[in-house]
Amino acid sequence: MPSSVKSFDFIExxxxxxxxxxxxxxxxxxxxxxxxxxxIVNQQLDFNAPLPTTEIKSGKAIISGRLLGYRGDMQTKVxxxxxxxxxxxxIPLKIEQNGNFKLEIETLIPTTVDLFVGKMNIxxxxxxxxxxKVYVNLQEFARRQxxxxxxxxxxxxxxxxxxxxxxxxxxxxxxxYDINLVSYDNTLMEDLNEKTLEECKAYFLNKxxxxxxxxxxxxxxxxxxxxxxTGVDLSFVYCLVACPSMMKSAYVANNKLDDxxxxxxxxxxKIDVPIDFYKCLNECKSxxxxxxxxxxxxxxxxxxxxxNAQKVFSEVFGTDRGxxxxxxxAQKYGIQLTNFVPxxxxxxxxxxxxxxxxxLTELLKRxxxxxxxxxxxxxxxxxxxxxxxxxxxxDLFYSIISKxxxxxxxxDIWATWCGPCKKMDAxxxxxxxxxxxxxxxxxxxxxxxxxxxxxxxxx
Length: 459
Hints:
Layout: E1 7-11, E2 20-25, H1 38-41, E3 59-68, E4 76-81, E5 88-92, E6 100-107, E7 111-117, E8 120-126, E9 131-137, H2 138-145, E10 159-163, H3 166-175, H4 186-191, H5 197-217, H6 222-241, H7 243-254, H8 259-268, H9 300-303, H10 309-317, H11 323-338, H12 345-352, H13 357-377, H14 393-402, E11 409-414, H15 419-429, H16 432-438, E12 442-447, H17 452-457
Parallel strand pairs: 3-9, 11-12
Antiparallel strand pairs: 1-2, 3-6, 4-5, 4-7, 7-8, 9-10
Helix pairs in contact: 5-6, 11-13
């Protein structure tokens, strides 16, 4: 390099996961200071304000601002979850040379989106008809995530916010609090080893109580505390519903069972869950409030998968009406459409008085589109439909593959919330060269949330 060069950027290649290091300094260790807009830095935010009154309507949410320290080759996008299908979609984010951006996002409810710059992401609360402003200090963001530099002095604020829920967005960026009760790792498997169902519940109750205590002690405002509480409540529900699956996984992991033995164990081991097992959910009343919109809402699928879910939560909340129930019903039919099953006239009548008008309108629109697509597909030729017939969960997988005996079968076990799964869809399965190679295989996709017995056997 010429002796006049003061800094350079290192980009390993053009792949999504390649190393990208920006602003490597040759003339000293300090990066130039980043100046956040004074009008945003000096604004007075009300951190004790309640969550805004929520009107459930579809519309465009606006997210705008600036990436300070932006380089033209940085990969940027916004990821938003669909409340009906529980699937996430990525929206390209066009950045001007000076780092400015503005993006309109179609959304059915107030929610939280993730703004990605490379592998760094920042959560932003948005709502239809509202504008959320965010100014991101990329240098400080990178320092916080760096293994080597995380203990160095701060390079200013990570981000500043204006507009919709600016105070809450600021607290999310500064605290980065993890609402999950557990990580699905070796420590969890060891902790759950040889525990009974009631002992597992006690284990998660203890984790839940500690999380609630932590939230109460955080120096944060009321609105953000309410969102965190709801997120922890939802995580606790997930843990309880997943208890039987986690117990089986713990047994397999701690006894080091091979694949065949693990499959047999998952198939044969029965863990009966009594209805009163879920009575401890009485503290989770926040799930029926507007703060539910800003959490990991796809976990509602787990909440609604428990036996007699509507009855259980009606007793928890003391009512069978409210945000939780409306979203649960809407999500049920949204996922049904995702699985290529149209909504019947009777189902439309049933749900019409149970969900918000805007969600009903969107479901009916998607239903009409799906029926049209199915009719169009009926005109296609060159393929064979293989129906499994009436089989129980334990025999479903074997029923699927039995028709292809003697052929090579590739099974993709995936989930709508799985980032790597979505990446495979975008970067692998959709490629022309891969599609050509796949002509030599039988390709089967299995959604672990829809076919849980199969997923548990092959976990």
